[in-house]
From TrEMBL:
Gene3D superfamilies: 1.10.1610.10, 3.40.50.10210
The organism of origin for this protein: Caulobacter flavus
Protein family membership: Belongs to the CobT family.
Gene name per UniProt: cobT
Short name of any one Pfam family annotated for the protein: DBI_PRT
Protein name (Swiss-Prot/TrEMBL): Nicotinate-nucleotide--dimethylbenzimidazole phosphoribosyltransferase
PANTHER family the record matches: NICOTINATE-NUCLEOTIDE--DIMETHYLBENZIMIDAZOLE PHOSPHORIBOSYLTRANSFERASE (PTHR43463:SF1)
Summary of the function given for this chain in its UniProt record: Catalyzes the synthesis of alpha-ribazole-5'-phosphate from nicotinate mononucleotide (NAMN) and 5,6-dimethylbenzimidazole (DMB).
Enzyme Commission code: 2.4.2.21
Length: 346
């Protein structure tokens, strides 16, 4: 039977079994430390236990996927940087000399780049996953960024790529690179949080007053062009290649009962779309940090979540998810490696 290209059926995601929570809390309370003395790391350990449906979850190995793509909306002057920076940064990630590479080296996280839709042909590289949907999303101020078929392809590829990454890791971390994508994420937040446009539009890579006015006006034109509000259509109209593929990756990790560390504003917009497509996915998402990008705090509030770190980051690339990875590893080790106080006291 032909599948309808206009629809997307998310993979089946198990709702976490909350009856395990008291057992996880009791196990933590029995450890050689005063109950609750490790604060939010204990809450994180509980979450990891619920995600894995186990009293001994694992989180020692994290794999970061940096989803890269371009946006036709940059033709409207929404970013202070040219699209060419996207492909240049992909080259830098692959050479190991970007900020996220430096952080990943410090935290023992593996890094792969996913070409979801960079507007250039990229030479093959062992750390580059070629999943290109098209050479950049279309200009969302004029037409839908992606067709429904392209959107479904991006989501499906994201699910598959997450699954493969998790064959070799316990935790998936997601990050992104895409000049113009803070505008795409703002439009998605506007429709999916939902929230008024002015609460969703921020500086992105940085703007003076004139640049921010130009960005705001272009985003308003895109919003006026389409009244889409279901998550699949919002991804197609505004999200573009790397955001749609990241949304698929969130669904893929959740379907495998694995934690997914979500980076800043743009990665969170992808997680928001995933959660609107499949609400059970929320329990599998760990929001790594609160971005300095204007809309991020309200986006996280709309999702009802709190980020782990607050460092004033607004770079993207997965820098925040990579920095949070050791916290997950530590929380899981608390459940598996720490002695019980009763045994210590004899
Ligand atoms: O992660 C964030 O919170 C974040 C906030 C603002 C900007 N960024 C990064 O900056 C780029 C998008 O900014 P812009 O101004 O081109 O839309 C893209 O490559 C993102 O990785 C990332
Ligand atoms: C230099 C640069 C690096 C980035 N990394 C993620 N987004 C970025 C945007 C710019 C402009």
């Amino acid at each position: 039977m032909e599948t309808d290209p206009m629809t997307f059926v998310p993979p089946s995601i198990a709702a976490v079994d909350r009856t395990l929570e008291p057992k996880l809390r009791a196990k933590l309370d029995g450890k050689a430390k005063p109950p609750g003395s490790l604060g939010r790391i204990e809450d994180l350990a509980v979450r990891l236990g619920l995600i894995a449906d186990s009293l001994a979850p694992r989180a020692g190995r994290t794999a970061l996927l940096v989803f890269a793509g371009d946006h036709g909306l940059t033709q409207e002057g929404v970013s202070s940087y040219p699209s060419a920076v996207t492909v240049a940064m992909v080259g830098l990630f692959l050479s190991g000399r970007s900020s996220v590479n430096a952080f990943a080296k410090a935290t023992g996280v593996s890094v792969k780049v996913v070409d979801a839709g960079v507007a250039a042909d990229l030479p093959a590289h062992p750390d580059l996953i070629d999943a290109k949907v098209r050479l950049g999303g279309r200009n969302a101020a004029r037409e839908a960024a992606l067709t429904p078929q392209e959107t479904r392809l991006a989501l499906t590829r994201g699910i598959e790529i997450a699954g493969r990454a998790l064959d070799e890791a316990d935790v998936l971390a997601i990050g992104e690179m895409g000049i113009g994508n803070s505008s795409a994420a703002a439009l998605m937040m506007h429709r999916l949080a939902p929230a008024p446009l002015n609460a969703c539009v921020g500086q992105g890579t940085g703007h003076d007053a004139e640049g921010l006015a130009r960005k705001t006006a272009a985003i308003a034109r895109a919003a006026a062009r389409s009244d889409a509000e279901d998550p699949f259509s919002v991804l197609a109209e505004f999200g573009g290649c790397e955001i749609a593929m990241m949304a698929g990756a969130v669904l893929g990790a959740a379907a495998r009962r694995r934690p997914v560390l979500v980076d800043g504003f743009i990665a969170s917009a992808a997680a928001l779309a995933a959660v609107r497509l499949a609400p059970e996915a929320l329990d599998y998402c760990v929001f790594a940090h609160g971005s300095a990008e204007k809309g991020h705090a309200a986006m996280l509030t709309a999702l009802g979540v709190e980020p782990l770190l607050d460092l004033g980051l607004r770079l993207g690339e997965g820098t925040g998810s990579v920095l949070a990875a050791p916290l997950l590893a530590a929380a899981a080790n608390l459940l598996t490696d720490v002695a019980d106080l009763a045994d210590v006291l004899g």
